[in-house]
Amino acid sequence: MNVMVIGSGGREYSIGLALKKDSNVNKLFFAPGNGATTHLGENIDIKNYDELADFAKEQGIDLTIVGPENALVDGVVDIFKDKGLVIFGASKAAARLEGSKIFMKNFLSRYHIPTAKFIETTNSQKAFDFIETLNLPIVVKADGLCAGKGVIIAQSKEEAKEAVTDMLSGKSFGEAGLGVVVEEFLDGYELSLFVICDGNDYKILPAAQDHKRLLDNDIGPNTGGMGAYAPTPLIDDILYKKVEERVIKPTLEGMKKENSPFEGVLFIGLMIVKNEPIVLEYNVRFGDPECEILMPLLKTPASELFYKAATRNLNKLTIEFYNKYAIAVVMASENYPYSNSKPAEIIVDKTVHELQLEGTHISYAGVSLIDEKLYATGGRVLLCVGLGDSIKEARDKAYMLCGQVHFAGKQFRKDIAYQALKQ
Ligand code: AMP
Ligand code: GLY
């Protein structure tokens, strides 16, 4: 079949890699792709989704897979479906689970799914009154999409009130901040769980852990994610069962009742507090860098999984994973996450010892092809991925690959998977 992937990051590159090694896949397209996806398929520069859907029809594209949330929130899935195309992703209505934190929190309350105590409001006095009732720290969230920056963990009531004022006035996040959620701080450890859904059935992927802070030991500013690993030993069968019964099933039942059955990837951000799963947030797409470790663990052909999910046939699929661990270490550019960096050429050393780098690969993200050479041009540039029979082996492989990759100003964390290795 012919497949198109919408997006341009490492997430979409890794989906492309999985499709590339899938014998069911004939032609592969990326819209818009990046400087390295051209090695896997053809990059398409069509921004308008109507036109992109027409292109998909003309080219006989059998399946489109959507990577980023913006495209989903903007309704790309509805546009493609209206034209009779098969597309894997959440509808515009279902994407509200990520597009509006107010919708999400109210949804969680309506269906009695465990979440942090909160209020949502557009009124600053109401927010201030609630802040007075909370212990420190206090969490303030902008309603809309803020590219991962819309959450403030305030260390004082004054700071929380200032965050509310700045959001509601439009100063900090424009329209995305005109509504806020104020909530209690949860103290525990975070897990990301990804569930492939077709509106009726679902398949749970191995649980992953992301490392959001820029620097080792989880300090420094929040980023899109500096590395991840899966499966994590921080979840066992009892916890899986709790998440399934208390979160996944009621979420999917709830979305059906709301007339927006959930199709696509449901990304559940959990805080585990005293062994109890509490929902921090939903996203309606794969995490990045989590996708880059889940795709190489997938044994089932990627085209089959996504096609069956997009056509309500997940019940006919037995999903299989390799019995391995995967780790991805993000290499970011010099000034990430503060500002852009100067483009820098990427050099990957020639492999001397083939065996050493077996089970490793690079997933390219913020890269451009300039005069046939690959340059680092984005914040998160690429990911060094290692697979192994243990977390330690996967980690050693990923870091061995990091040693082979060079560009001016590169920065990366040296402690990915440290919580799991401590266990
Ligand atoms: P979110 O976009 O809601 O997942 O928030 C981004 C990050 O902020 C999460 O990954 C957590 O690290 C942190 N966070 C959000 N809400 C809370 C909360 N109620 N308690 C503690 N940390 C939180
Ligand atoms: N890695 C977290 C995210 O994609 O939002």
Q: Which features does this protein show?
A:
single chain; 423 residues; alpha+beta; Rossmann fold; Dna Ligase, domain 1; Glycinamide Ribonucleotide Synthetase, Chain A, domain 4; 28% strand; globular; binds adenosine monophosphate; binds glycine
Q: Strands, helices and their partners?
A:
Elements: E1 3-7, H1 10-20, E2 28-32, E3 42-43, H2 49-58, E4 63-66, H3 69-73, H4 76-82, E5 87-88, H5 96-99, H6 101-110, E6 118-121, H7 124-133, E7 138-142, E8 151-154, H8 157-168, E9 180-184, E10 189-198, E11 202-204, E12 209-210, E13 213-215, E14 219-222, E15 227-230, H9 237-257, E16 263-273, E17 276-283, H10 290-297, H11 302-310, E18 325-332, E19 344-345, E20 347-348, E21 360-364, E22 367-370, E23 373-376, E24 380-388, H12 391-402, E25 405-406, H13 418-422
Parallel strand pairs: 1-2, 1-4, 2-3, 4-5
Antiparallel strand pairs: 6-9, 7-8, 7-9, 10-11, 10-16, 12-15, 13-14, 15-18, 16-17, 18-24, 19-23, 20-25, 21-24, 22-23
The structure holds adenosine monophosphate and glycine.
Residues 116, 139, 141, 151, 183, 185-186, 190, 212, 269, 280-281 line the site of adenosine monophosphate (AMP).
